[in-house]
Amino acid sequence: MQQDVEAWIGQFEEGYWHPLTMLARLTEEVGELAREINHAYGQKPKKEGEPPGDIALELADIMFILVCYANALNINLEEAWRRMMAKYRERDSERWTRKPDLEGGPA
User: Fold this and answer.
1) In the chain, is it the N or the C terminus that has fewer CB atoms within a 10 Å radius of its CB?
2) pTM for this structure?
3) 8 A C-beta contact, residue 67 and residue 5
């Protein structure tokens, strides 16, 4: 994903947005996801004639902004992901009840 975003952004002179602009964009996209979740699972129905939303696309929009952030700040998301998962595996290994067929779970 990081290479795809870099290739796309790299074709424009403007390059990546300023970090505060990316934060504003991320906030905007999270709001759009919240709206679609509320329509699909909450108590706020869509207005008559309003087109159906696409939760998957809203999630992907958020991922795009996050990848832009990572690229602009020279962060390797794959490495960050591995570190984050190690943290969760260690910290939360006994927090929840494991499914019987998954005793021991992945390392």
Assistant:
1) C
2) 0.84
3) yes
In one-letter notation, the amino acid at residue 77 is L
Domains of the chain: 2-93 (1.10.287.1080)
How far is Cα 58 from Cα 55, in angstroms, rounded to an integer? 5
Q: How confident is the model over 23-70, as pLDDT tens digits?
A: 999 999 999 999 999 999 998 888 888 888 999 999 999 999 999 999
* DSSP-based helix, strand, coil % in the chain, nearest 5: 65, 0, 35
Taking 70 as the threshold, does the pLDDT of residue 106 lie above it?
no
The DSSP secondary-structure symbol of 45 reads P
